[in-house]
Amino acid sequence: MPNSYDRIFKENIEPLQLILLKKLLGLDPPKLVALDAKLHVTQENEMDSIRRVVHDDPSLDYGLQIEFHIADEDLRYRNALHYALFLTITRLSLRQIVIYGGMAEPKNIIKNILEIRGHRSEFEVIVLKKIPKEIFLNSEVPEEVMLALLCDYGRDQPVEVVRQILQNLKKILEKTDKIRKYQKQLIVLSRLRKIEAITKKEVEAMTIHYDIETDDLYLEGIEKGIEKGIEKGIEKGIEKGIEKGIEKGISLKERDFTLNLWAAQEFSLEKIARLVGVTEEQVVDTVITYLQDQQKTKEEAFVILTVYREQFPALL
């Protein structure tokens, strides 16, 4: 598995283990504990993911190995080796679960039974793209919400699914540094479905609780946006627009309605203006003032508006 995907799954597996067991396999193990360090001296570090399922009666204990895989590869002999090593060291049985997150139609990884004379071993395979996205999408656990990206979208378009994931992450996470982590992970995972461009655009449009100043995802866009704005004199136009908006003013109710429609990330600025009953210029003034209240500079506010206009253009 490529290192970038492998790193994400290893970072996220801990809070996912019990969730995956319950939702996908109907299991509710009493307790999972990390294994002794002696298991980690084996020849393959993939065995670090194994946990011991602990019961009140120790004779019922067994090992549990949950692994994510992107490549469609035959894992029968590899998993048989893991089982043998685990059994030798712990004298416990091992339940092995492989979660396939690749987009290629699985042909090799679903071969889950190894049967030769004197030996038979079997593991379970779960293909994420056959699981409805709704299983994970509305969770309160961000790592679980992220899995929806690799599931079955049903009739929804990729852009709709990405937007739903981002909106749910925004509801769950309040701190900028945390949401930035999952946004970056989402962009990496989106490469598996070949929707990286869509995901980047959605992340860029999601301005609430996002620290644009410290995130390298936006640095290039900020520099280009500032340069483009200066060349076209838009920065000066924004300043005049703010002054004019202050002169004209809009009611507090109109301001709140404007910002609610802006936060929905669904409407063009032109449509927001029509729905609220104000001018598009007043919508721009309101959004810029709001963004500056959120500690964004004028240049950053301009870039956010530029990205928003590109994603939600006015209908001709």
Beta-strand percent range? 5-15%
Helical fraction equals 40-55%
Total tally of structural domains: 3
Poorly predicted regions are 207-215, 241-248
Spatial gap, N to C terminus:
46 Å
Helix count?
A: 13
Major beta sheet, specifics?
Answer: 5 strands, mixed
Task: Name the overall outline.
Answer: elongated
Q: Please count the beta strands (DSSP E, at least 2 residues each).
A: 7
Question: Which sequence of SSEs, written as H and E, runs from N to C?
Answer: HEEEHEEEEHHHHHHHHHHH
User: Quick check: average pLDDT?
Assistant: 82
Query: What is the gyration radius calculated from CA atoms?
Result: 25 Å
Strand order of the main beta sheet, please? 1-2-3-4-7
Structural class determined from secondary elements: alpha/beta
Task: Give structural notes.
The chain is α/β, with parallel strands linked by helices. It has 3 domains: 3-130; 134-205, no CATH class; 218-311, no CATH class. It has 13 helices and 7 strands. It has helices at 3-25, 76-90, 134-137, 142-147, 158-172, 176-190, 196-205, 216-232, 234-248, 252-263, 269-276, 280-293, 298-311, and strands at 32-34, 50-53, 62-69, 94-100, 113-116, 119-122, 124-127. The chain starts with a helix and ends in a 5-residue tail after the last helix.
